[in-house]
Each structure stands twice: as C-alpha cells, then as structure tokens.
Fold:
Amino acid sequence: MRQAGRYLPEYQEVRRKAGGFLEMCRDPELAAEVTLQPVRRFGVDAAIIFSDILLPLQAMGMPLVFEEGRGPVLPGPLRDERRISKLKVAEPSVDLGYVGEALRLVRARLDPQVALLGFCGAPFTLACYAIEGGTSRTQVHVRRMMYHQPELFAVLMDKLADVVISHLRFQAESGADALVVFDTWAGQLARDDWRRFAAPALQRVFDETAGLRPRLLFTLDGGHVLDEQVALGPEGLAVDWRVDLPACLDRHGGRVAVQGNLDPAVLLAPPEEVARRTAALLAAVGGRPGHVLALGHGVMKETDPEAVAAFVETAREGAGASSAQPPGRRTTGARHDG
Amino acid sequence: MRQAGRYLPEYQEVRRKAGGFLEMCRDPELAAEVTLQPVRRFGVDAAIIFSDILLPLQAMGMPLVFEEGRGPVLPGPLRDERRISKLKVAEPSVDLGYVGEALRLVRARLDPQVALLGFCGAPFTLACYAIEGGTSRTQVHVRRMMYHQPELFAVLMDKLADVVISHLRFQAESGADALVVFDTWAGQLARDDWRRFAAPALQRVFDETAGLRPRLLFTLDGGHVLDEQVALGPEGLAVDWRVDLPACLDRHGGRVAVQGNLDPAVLLAPPEEVARRTAALLAAVGGRPGHVLALGHGVMKETDPEAVAAFVETAREGAGASSAQPPGRRTTGARHDG
Structure:
C-alpha cells in the first residue's frame, strides 16, 4: 500500500511545488523524492514507487483529471464498441517512460537492502474506472456491459491485460524488485462473477509475468475469493484487515507469502495504542512462516506520522523477536489515491 | 432489503407528488402506498415498511437533509461531549408515530398471508452517520472517537441502543411481523474492533427485544463476523452476495434462518439471465432448510422491473419445487437509501 502521501508534511511540500497530483506522478524526480520520504523518515524495509493505477489508462488515450476532494475523473468513459476499439494498446517504455525513470532514480538512491516495489491496477479495476469514468460504488455501467455485452467486455479486458502485462515487465526492467497487482473493485463481485469476469484477464497477467519478479495480488474486500486468488499463481497474497490472518496463513502460507493486515484506520489511534495493536497482530500470527507485515490499505491522509512510526518500530521489534524471519523486508505499506 | 424505490414508475409518481424522500417517509398514507407497490406488482411474500434508518436520529434532535444525488446530510455531527449529552432519547410512539401509523395502514391492507417487516439501523451504523454527519467511506471521525474517547463513544452507543430498542418494540406493537436490524457500516471493522465497539450495543438490542418478533440481522460486508452475529441471538442472519451461502447454511442453518443472497447488480442483466442466476442459486442451496431467498442488498434505481419480476417468478417456482419450505414467505428484498 502507498506509504507516501498527504499525511507527511514533506510530501505536502513537494506537492505544492509540483502543482498537482498527476504532475508529481509524471515528474520522475518528484516521484522518486516522495517515494523515498517514508524510507528516510520511518526506515521501512521496502519502498513502493509513487505512481497511480490510472496512468496506464491515460497512456491508452483516455483523458484523466484529478480534482481536489473529488477523486479521479475520466471524462470519456468507454461504453461502446467504437470507443473501445479506438483504445490504444500503450507501450509503457514509451508512454509511461516516466515511471521507469522514477524507478531507476529510486533504485540508485535506495539502500540495496531495501526492496523497491512496482505496481499496476488489475484489469477489472482498470475496466471499472474506464467504463464508469471515475469512482462508482454501484458500477452500473460495468455490470450492464458484463451482462449485456460480455464479448465486448472481454475485448476491453484483453486490451487492458496487454498493457498491465507490459507495464509490469517494464517496471521489472526499470529496477522494481517485486510487483504488486492492486484489484480495488473485483472484491465487489460474487464468486461466480469474479471467476467469469475478473479472473481470465488476471490469469493472463500472472501467466505472462511468471518468473519475472515476485508478484503480490491484493484484492480489496476479496476475502471470499482467497483460494481463487492463490490459484492464479502469485508469489504473494495481500489481504485486508478483515481477513483472519492466522487462518489464512495456515491455509495458504505454504504456497504463497501472505501480506497483511493492520487496519490503516487503527493508525488514527494514539501511538501507544497503535503499538499495542501491532504487537497483538504479530502475537496472533505467532511467527508463522511466510508472513509479511503491512497495512491492509494505504495510509489515510488524517494519520499522525507518529502513529506510522509506532507501527514500524513495533514491527521491527517483533521481527527481531521472531526467529523465522530475517529482520529486514518485513514492513511495507501503498495505494493509488494517496 | 428495500423493495420499493426509484426503479418503479409508480414510486416515482408518488415521490413527485410528495415533493421529496423525507416527506414521503413521514406521510403514513404515502409510505403505506409505496410499501404496497412491489407486493401488488410482483406478488412477493413479504413487504418491508418504507422508511429510513436515519429517521430515529432526526427524532433524537439531529437535523437531517436528503439532497438529490448526494445522499443524507446531518449538518450537526456529534463529535464532542456537549452535543452527545444534548442528544434526546426519543420516544418512538411520539417522535416516530408516523412509522407506526404507516405500519398499521399497510397491515390493514395487506393479505394476511404476506408478512410485514419493520426495521431499524444498528447502533454502530447510526453512530457513523451521527458522527460523520453523512456517508463517509473512511469514517475518520468515528475512528478518532472510538480510539481516543472510548467512554464517550460508549455513551453515544448506549443512547442509540435505547432508541433502537424502543423503535423495534414500537414497530412490533404497530403491526410488524418481523424486524430487520441493518448494519451498513460495522462490516468495515476488523473482528476485534467489531467485538469491542459494535457488538455490545447490538447485544443489548437483541437481549432487550428477545421473544418479541423474529429478528434478522444484516451486516453489509460482514462475512468475517458471521459466527459473532449468530451468537448475538437473532432468529435470522441476512448475508450479502459474497458470502458462500451453502457453507453458511451448513454452519448456521440449524440455529438461525439464513437470508440471502443474489447480488442486486445481477438484476441489471437481461431477465432470462436473472432467472438463470436465481435458479442456479436455489440449486446451489439444494433445499437446505432455513433458507430465505432475498437480494443481498436493495434494488438499484437503474433496475428494470422486468428483472425483479424474473427473480420473483423463478423464486416462486423454486419454492414450489423445493419440498422443505412452505411456498409462501420466501422472497423479500429493502434498503434505506431507496
């Protein structure tokens, strides 16, 4: 989950200078700088590149606007065959070159012991934004296309998968040590719909990036499709805070790393309470192998940096106490909407 | 889940005459009329009173406004001790008398074979609206109060539970055959937080309405606290479309009725697809006793009434084919935001 963000005064300063969120994402120097900020401040053992899951849609020819307090808006939503056929299959090394440049800058400045993560939105999540034209709780247009024009929906998903695959490859070539696939919206689907409409493109993504780098899959609200996510073949499964972590590790820990899952809203508590909760989570996990401690979602903008520090420090003490894990590479934390 | 709503032209007509959503809720004749509309049109075997979960907050002295396309707004959010201490413990028979009157009108006009459901928001969900002042995805103010002023939060929850309990009693006295408790927001909490912050007031609600009428509990996104919800003692557990229904029935069906769970967004599909999905759901349940077929949430305003008809007809055929269940009282469907 995104570590950098508006809760950090040093981030706010860069953002003011940049003039906007997208400007910051598209400027490799600024993106590299804010990527490194949480590593400097907290000493986390992995950094996640500062970027946004919607940039590939922009690279595919969709106008994209971020308005303060309104979230992303894509003024030309894709709801018919004509628009979908005009969608360009972007070439990330050209159209998203600034992401590669930011990764190279960060990798060069980062302690070699600290992992650098790249990421991409999952095809279903990108389809949701592309079809709805922004954030939608009800996903009415997505469902209409799924159920009334399943072939057209599949064409769109395939184009999106092409770009997701090449963007993940490009990030690996540019210095990412591991890759995260974020599926923000597929968790809204019942299991059968997930299998039919979200899984095929996601399977292509994991098949066609196999062996490249360790890949983590995170599906928000995806507790009902954990077995199915593991079956896609990721090296890691990231789960949200409502998933029973010890049970998940017992079931899947032999096959994948399991990343999770303190509720990021717990970081609104006083630092000593954050420390207590983090320690309790580690105690519940009880040193089960394959656990990667992280937040179940991005850091909220209202969070006190002291609370993040309490989380990281407690995690580090816990990792030191736990024998099964090396002390490094245990805490990460990124999300696309900062 | 709410059956009446903007997807029905006859509802739109009443709403135009009423001038607004709240006006319709507060006029017993109009509320009764729209409650009866889906029974007339579809022949469902239960009706749910047309009302809103936020009306008890208004009765407790909080200003409440519904703006088209914006959802509910409570302009005086409760974030300090002074405001919470001024909150009035409403007397539903006086302050929500119009709900009782609407129930009496519906009960008098409804076929005695058709069940009439009353409902109330759960204390945690009401607290979310009261503290945030409206719908919030992040619940920042709620979390701050929970974690920084847990005693104050408990005082608020207790006042809300008082009103929830008396409102459920009042609805039973006014003709409701069964009562639904809707918890829209508690499913966002990790299990430990749910136990500590949502469960105590909810336990009071179920303890203090025991034996009154069959009570159903629905927690949106609550798949991670099913055991805990059953332990509170409701007669029925309503689950959303992401819960594995056969597994849930196998685990809990001997203790509670399980209501669920077609995804309401599936009703955006062509009617023949809706029929196919409904039949598939019933086949998966395989006549397990204790199942009540319903939608996993309210009917979306973009839904074609023909799709609802396909759902109800398929359900009725399924109920006729299934030996374990009486043919009536199997399909319901209400939610608070129409």
